[in-house]
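User: New here, any thoughts?
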Amino acid sequence: MLGRTDSARRLIALLVVFGIAGSGLLVRLGYWQIAQRQALVDAANRQISLTTTVPSRRGDIYDRSGTVVLASSVVTNRLIVAANNLDEVQQAAMVAFLVTQLGLDQADTDSLRQKLAAGKPYNVVAKDLTTEQADAIRTAADAAGITGISFESQAIRDYPQAGGSPGTSLAAHLLGFVNLQGQGQYGIEQYYQSQLAGTPEIVEADKDANGQPIMDTEHVVSAGTTGQDLRLTIDASLQLAIEQEVMAAQIADHADSVSAVVIDPYTGEVYGESTYPSFDGNNYAAAAAADPGVFLDPVVSSVYEPGSVFKMLTVIAALEQGTSTLQTKYRDPGSLRLDGGKTKIEDSDRRGMGTLALQDGVAYSRNVVAAQVALGLAPTTAQASQILHDVWLKMGFGAPTGIDLSGEVNGIVNDPAINPWRQIDLANGSFGQGVAVTPIQLATAFAAMVNGGTLVQPHVVASIGGQPVAAPSRGSVLDPSMSPVLVNLMHHVLQIPWYKPLTTVPGYWLGGKTGTAQIWDPQKHRFLANTYNFSCVGFIARTPGRPDLIVAVQIHAGRPARNAQGAIVTPIASTELFRRIATDAESTPGLLGPAPAATPTPTPTPTPVPTQAPTPPAAPVDALPASTDPILPSR
């Protein structure tokens, strides 16, 4: 007799299996209908609709006047011919029509005829047509019954102002450029990409079986926002003059590059900055193919050992510590043994100048005097090193200035708390060796020296979308009473016989500090032959004691015309370049307000010095290069 097949346990197991399967299906259905609902809707919409992203108008860039256009977006059009549906008669009519409209010569006419004969659906016949030209051709084609013509529009960035050297656009390093994807590259274009670009308009439309939008079905998903215009702090006429000056110096001195920057020491506004070699922002692709390194702006993106301009920092440390005054006497024997006689530094001429007041040791740029000042900052080398290092940091070195340009670097400042300095390290640091800085860092540090001790925030944008941009200061770093002393010292420096002929401007009052340094080749472990970095940083004033502008210049890897017996002669010295640019800035119409009231600044009396012929600078015993200041002016 057969057994029963309706076992209760089997039935229960089957129900459990169906329950689990049903629950899984229910969960999966919920997942698709709830969790993935929007994704499914979007996928369905993509099957029947077309989404188009329309970039917004990119904001224009103006100089400080708000009238000179430095960068703008221009709409250009490409003329496209679909030849796949044209018979021979239509092709001939198309060629005749385009020859008339475009003014083609015989070679271009033959090329056009060959393109159309190939029967391809997409042929670019003309580029860079204005909107007016495209509209005129479209109207003429409709009137003549010509079909198969269409236009593609593209917004390109235009830099309409010619630069100060052939084949360049004005303020190219400062502005950067915009690539074909609409992304700003380098400079202002990259730093202010979001403000300039705005947000795109997004439009949806139903599409037909061929993927083409159906008329009257378009609707705006997102209206987008127009890019904002920028007004810079840059003066276009001064910028052009600076570009011409740095080009002339680069060519004359056979330098790798020459850079300069002019800033307002009280507001941090950058009135002009340039480096040569430069490039044309309208043809950045050619510049990239030749040397992409040309896009980097050395004013903010390249560091170098500044040399003796850093002696001003050593003076600040000594004045703050009370270990020296400008009248403190120092003996200059021409060289100084350090670290128990294991290392040595030397003056550029390797000859002593006897006993000098500190102000004259700085003016005549004596390395030995600067080293003695630094070593005397504290009882121990470690303490003195930390004091000098702290002054560097508070004056803005070793950190970005915060300038609103892309690619700014920190610079290199070695911390003695991490890697203890020897006496030679402290001595070299006292005259600007073993530290690497940017020209914009030097300009802002010298601004603090003359403006009452405030470390300004350098900036190049004055307003965004018509709204002023306020750049905050970075705080007070010096006692205000120190500024008149430092201003007076810098003026004194440029009064010595070596500098005065190249820095005297009738009706103006100038001051500054120079730096000349050998360049170490890390690959060959030696100094580059007859190649130097030359710098000059300082101020120009209409009223004695109250500087109007800070000017910093750097001649990178300049090659002197004569280098014998310590006479490093360049066709255009850094002091002369400084004076030229400072004068250009002061004479720029409308750049400065009324001349301020004078601030008493008695000129110090220099200590008499021996009259002796300088000798060639010597390489230091230590691995770090030594300053080779002072340089003799060309005559």
Summary: The CA atoms of residues 456 and 473 lie 5 Å apart. The chain has a mean pLDDT of 87.
